[in-house]
Design brief:
35% of the residues lie in helices and 28% in strands. 27% of the residues are buried. By secondary structure, it is of the alpha/beta class. Helix 4 packs across helix 5, helix 5 crosses helix 6 and helix 5 crosses helix 7. It has a 4-stranded mixed beta sheet, covered by helices on one side. Strand 6 and strand 7 form a beta hairpin.
């Protein structure tokens, strides 16, 4: 069974409580809290598998992952303790420039490996290719926007898997490590994670939306997760391993913390 031991690379800096455990799908409770005179809506997701409280903020707003029997008073204490962080991150997500970057349409350019490429939709067998610095998306019914967007997501995922697989193989070889399993995710709060099973095998999960980012940033995330195959912690030995694989990791890490605000919602 995987996830016996797992480490994650968050999309941006989170409080310690938000980094300890993976988010588990559960029913949501909608609540409201006053922070610094502002009324803040938030959602609580409870799970019997959780042992800690965790905070995340993304396009959906403030969300709390909680154990099934967590008291409401404890949840509110956690939010108040991190009120400055919560308000700052909500302001970042709601900034007009960032919101505009995420509000993507088929008529917009699409960030692709760090370049903003025009997207042309044409009739044909489903496919996605780059031609003359343009993304060509072929779908059976181009006039059906919902189907076109769904096809685009599937094809982008396929491209991301091919791209990430090659990077993972390269960094695993450089680290003298066996090639791990690759899993694609669309996690709201992390770029990647590394899990180890009882037999010692590894699985690396990578957020497929990284295909929008510059190759150097994807390389950093891959190097980060490959280093976890030997060092399942964030101690000095881990960061030394990351530096060997990716010497400019500090600059890339800082840049990655800002990129989650700008990724398009395709």
């Amino acid at each position: 069974m995987l996830r016996l031991l797992q480490l994650e690379l968050p999309l941006f800096g989170l409080p310690r409580e938000a980094r300890r455990a993976p988010v588990v799908q559960a029913a949501e409770e909608r609540r409201r809290i006053m922070l610094d005179g502002k009324s803040i809506d938030y959602a609580v997701r409870r799970s019997a598998k959780r042992r800690t409280l965790g905070l995340t903020i993304d396009t959906r707003g403030l969300r709390v992952a909680a154990p099934a029997k967590a008291k409401h008073a404890d949840i509110e204490r956690l939010i108040h303790r991190h009120a400055a962080w919560v308000l700052a991150k909500l302001r970042e997500w709601q900034h007009p420039e960032h919101a505009a970057a995420r509000a993507w349409s088929l008529a917009d350019t699409l960030p692709w490996l760090g370049r903003a490429l025009p997207l042309k939709v044409a009739p044909g067998k489903p496919g996605l290719a780059i031609f003359d610095d343009m993304l060509i998306l072929t779908v059976p019914r181009p006039d059906d926007e919902r189907e076109t967007r769904a096809r685009l997501v599937l094809l982008v995922k396929q491209s991301a898997r091919a791209d990430f697989s090659a990077r993972l193989a390269r960094y695993a070889a450089a680290f003298d490590a066996p090639l791990p399993q690759l899993r694609l995710t669309r996690a709201a709060t992390r770029w990647g994670s590394c899990a180890r099973d009882a037999a010692g095998g590894h699985r690396i999960s990578l957020n497929w939306r990284m295909i929008h980012l510059a190759p150097r940033l994807i390389d950093y995330v891959v190097a980060h997760e490959v280093a976890h195959m030997r060092h399942m912690h964030h101690g000095p030995r881990f960061w030394a391993a990351v530096e060997r694989l990716y010497p400019d990791y500090l600059a890339a890490r800082d840049e990655m913390r800002r990129m989650s605000l700008r990724l398009p919602e395709i």
